[in-house]
Amino acid sequence: MGVLNLTEDSFSDGGRWLDATAAIAQARRMIDEGADLIDLGAESTRPGAPPVAPEVETGRLLPVLHALADCGRPLSVDTRKPAVMRAVLATGLADMINDVAGFATPEAIEAVRDSQAACCVMHMQGDPLTMQQSPVYREVVGDVRQWLAARTTALQHAGVDRARIVIDPGIGFGKTVAHNLALIARLPELLADGLPVLIGVSRKSMIGAITGRDLEQRLPGSLAAMLAAVARGARIVRVHDVAATRDALAVWAAVEAATHE
Ligand code: HH2
Fold first, then answer.
1. What is the pLDDT of residues 143-169, one digit of tens each?
2. Is 138 among the catalytic positions?
3. Helix, strand or coil, per DSSP, at residue 207
4. Catalytic residue flag (residue 238)
5. At the topology level of CATH, where does 2-259 sit?
6. Is 245 touching ligand 1 by the criterion CB < 6 Å?
7. Whose CA is nearest to atom 10 of ligand 1?
8. Residue 1 beta carbon below 6 angstroms from any ligand 1 atom
C-alpha cells in the first residue's frame, strides 16, 4: 500500500503532494514501482496534528480520486470523519476506508455499512493531539487485540461482512517504542482472530528512536521493521517508499520459497 498524503503537515511528506497534479503523478509513480493499492489521506494524524475541516478534506480527496479512477489499483481513503467517508463512498471510487480511529462511533459505522468498501480498523489510544503524552496499557498486545475484536464485532453487528474487514495495531498511535515493538514481535497473536493484518511502520518515530536517524534517513530501518512484520504474518504494508519495499519483499520471498522447497 503506497501512501499519498494530500496534506500540508504530514510528518514525512507534508506539503509535497498538496497540489492535485503532483499527487496524481506520485500515485502513478508508486503504481509503476509496484504498489498494489494506494492510500489517500488529507488530514495528518501525526502526534499533535491539528484537525482539518471535513469540507477541506473532501475537497482535497475528490479531484485525486476522480483522476485515479482508471489507475487499475484499488484506492483506499484514510479518514476518521463520517462525512468524508460518505462523500468519497458516494463517488463509487473508494475501495477501502482506512479509519485510524477504528470506526469507534456509530456515525462512522453507519457511513460504511451500506457500501461494499473494505474497512481498515486501526487501533489508536487517545487522539492525535495528545496520544503520545503518556500511553498506558494493562498489557499492550492483549489490550489492542481485545479492542480490535470489539470494533470488528460492532461492524459485523451493523451488517458489515467480515470479508470486508482488515485490522491494524496502529504503530505509533498512542504507543511507546516498547509498545510498538511488542505489537510487531507478537503480531501472530493478532492473526489468531483470522482477519488480515495491515501495518504501517514507514519512517515512523520508532525507527528514529532505534537508529538515531532523521526522517529522510529512515528507509533501511523502515524496511527492517516492515520485513519483521511480514515475516510474522502482516498481509498489507503501508509504505512511502514503494520500489525499495518491493525489492526487500522480493529478496525475503525468494529466501522463504527456497526454505520451503
Ligand atoms: N499511519 C499513519 C496514517 N494512517 N493508517 C493505518 N491503517 N496504519 C498506519 O500505521 C497509519 C495510517 C501515519 O503516517 P503518515 O500518513 O505518513 O503521516 P500523517 O498521519 O502525518 O499524514
1. 999 999 999 999 999 999 999 999 999
2. no
3. helix
4. yes
5. TIM Barrel (3.20.20)
6. no
7. 200
8. no
